[in-house]
């Protein structure tokens, strides 16, 4: 079949498909250059820009998501820290309150003890003072009574004060000595 | 171009003259325009229009039209340029590879399109010009990178015993600097010529069987019609495939020229 074609070509026209005509080359070149510049200067830069935009948009979204995640984590950390702080503070306050309570109790106990001691010593001092007063008053009264009694008994007025008081003193001294001996 | 619009009776097979129609404008000048040139112009106009509309207002979220154009451009960029040449060199040679791919594709596809019925690449001009461009591109790429390295790799492949260079070097020279542009040209040209002739043959045979042949022979027309239909679809595939092969080989040649060693 192809032989027939070649034969037809050979006898009919002188055209050889392998020999380029000048106009063929010219128009092919024109077409090539037009398409080349069209792609080179118009289509491919636009396409490149689009690809860059798309990549940027995707990266932007990823960055945004990352940012949100980071913020959430920071907030969580902050809350956790605050919570821990609050707990620590509460513990501290409780501790402080306990210590204060102890202190107050101790203070009150001390105060009470001191008060008791004071009351006791006051009472003791008062008792002593009263005892002294009793002793003094007893001594003078007993002396007078004794002398009255004695003067009555012996009938002799011991009016001489010097003498009488010497007798009383001696009596008392004897009395005290006897008391001490009895102890 | 309407192969069966000839005189009554007899079978009119396709001829090579199909590819040399009469001039319409500027006959005899270097700017002569015939039917095939007009088909080419139409294909180029459609190409420019499609890509202009598709990339006029590009958005991050694409419209349907933009998606299709993007898919085409991505095919040339990712599956040819970046696959073969890597990201950096792929970007450098992307305009050239994209141009070759879509120019060949749009000029090929006019072959199976009704009323155009001839591929813009079925005349030697386009395949030849593109093959020479590819030839220039890989030599430019190699020489620009490192002339010594390029010619040594191309002519004195490493790992070959020195005395064999007497045989190897001429073979390498011919295969790299002579055969490559020729095979690029002929592969595309012959595919398109033969594709066209086959279609013409099937359909003119159908015409002949249906309207000229007698009796039982008319049945053969059904067979040829079915074949013609199948081959029309096949031509669409060939149009795509040849565009891919041309662009891919260009990228491969550039890659070989850029390689440190191969």
UniProtKB/TrEMBL annotation, chain A:
Annotated keywords: ATP synthesis, Cell membrane, CF(0), Coiled coil, Hydrogen ion transport, Ion transport, Membrane, Transmembrane, Transmembrane helix, Transport
Cell membrane recorded as keyword: yes
InterPro entries named in the record: ATP_synth_B-like_membr_sf (IPR028987), ATP_synth_b/b'su_bac/chlpt (IPR002146), ATP_synth_F0_bsu_bac (IPR005864), ATP_synthase_B_chain (IPR050059)
Main location: membrane
Membrane topology: Single-pass membrane protein
Parts of the chain that traverse the membrane: 25-44
Subcellular location: Cell membrane
Reported function: Component of the F(0) channel, it forms part of the peripheral stalk, linking F(1) to F(0).
Record protein name field: ATP synthase subunit b
Source lineage: Bacteria, Bacillati, Actinomycetota, Actinomycetes, Micrococcales
TrEMBL record, chain B:
Keywords: ATP synthesis, Cell membrane, CF(0), Hydrogen ion transport, Ion transport, Membrane, Transmembrane, Transmembrane helix, Transport
InterPro entries, alphabetized: ATP_synth_F0_asu, ATP_synth_F0_asu_bact/mt, F0_ATP_A_sf
Gene3D superfamilies, per database record: ATP synthase, F0 complex, subunit A
Signal peptide: none
GO cellular component: plasma membrane; proton-transporting ATP synthase complex
Main location group: membrane
The protein's role, per its UniProt record: Key component of the proton channel; it plays a direct role in the translocation of protons across the membrane.
Protein name (Swiss-Prot/TrEMBL): ATP synthase subunit a
């Amino acid at each position: 079949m192809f032989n027939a074609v070649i034969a037809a070509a050979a006898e009919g026209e002188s055209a050889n498909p392998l020999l380029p005509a000048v106009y063929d080359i010219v128009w092919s070149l024109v077409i090539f250059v037009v398409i080349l510049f069209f792609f080179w200067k118009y289509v491919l830069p636009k396409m490149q820009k689009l690809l860059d935009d798309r990549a940027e948009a995707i990266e932007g979204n990823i960055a945004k998501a990352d940012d949100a995640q980071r913020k959430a984590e920071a907030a969580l950390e902050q809350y956790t820290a605050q919570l821990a702080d609050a707990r620590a503070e509460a513990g501290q306050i409780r501790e402080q309150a306990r210590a204060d309570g102890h202190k107050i109790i101790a203070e009150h106990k001390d105060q009470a003890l001191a008060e008791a001691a004071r009351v006791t010593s006051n009472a003791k001092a008062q008792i002593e003072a009263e005892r002294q007063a009793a002793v003094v008053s007893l001594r003078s009264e007993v002396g007078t009574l004794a002398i009255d009694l004695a003067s009555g008994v012996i009938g002799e007025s011991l009016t001489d004060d010097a003498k009488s008081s010497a007798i009383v003193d001696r009596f008392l001294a004897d009395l005290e000595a006897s008391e001490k001996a009895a102890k | 171009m309407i192969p069966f619009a000839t005189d009554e009776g007899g079978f009119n097979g396709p001829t090579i003259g199909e590819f040399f129609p009469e001039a319409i404008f500027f006959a005899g000048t270097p700017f002569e325009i015939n039917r095939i040139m007009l088909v080419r112009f139409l294909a180029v106009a459609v190409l420019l229009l499609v890509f202009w509309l598709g990339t006029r207002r590009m958005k991050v979220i694409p419209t349907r039209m933009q998606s299709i154009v993007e898919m085409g451009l991505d095919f040339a960029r990712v599956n040819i340029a970046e696959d073969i040449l890597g990201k950096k060199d792929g970007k450098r040679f992307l305009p050239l590879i994209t141009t070759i791919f879509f120019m060949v594709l749009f000029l090929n596809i006019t072959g199976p399109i009704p009323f155009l019925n001839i591929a813009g690449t079925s005349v030697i001009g386009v395949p030849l010009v593109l093959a020479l461009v590819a030839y220039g591109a890989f030599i430019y790429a190699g020489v620009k990178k490192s002339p010594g390295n390029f010619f040594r790799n191309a002519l004195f492949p490493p790992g070959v015993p020195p005395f064999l260079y007497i045989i190897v070097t001429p073979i390498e020279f011919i295969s790299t600097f002579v055969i490559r542009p020729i095979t690029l040209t002929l592969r595309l040209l012959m595919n398109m010529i033969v594709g066209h002739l086959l279609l013409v043959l099937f359909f003119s045979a159908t015409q002949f069987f249906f309207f000229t042949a007698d009796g039982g022979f008319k049945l053969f027309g059904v067979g040829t019609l079915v074949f013609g239909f199948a081959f029309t679809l096949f031509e669409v595939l060939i149009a795509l495939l040849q565009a891919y092969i041309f662009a891919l080989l260009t990228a491969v040649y550039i890659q070989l020229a850029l390689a440190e060693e191969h």
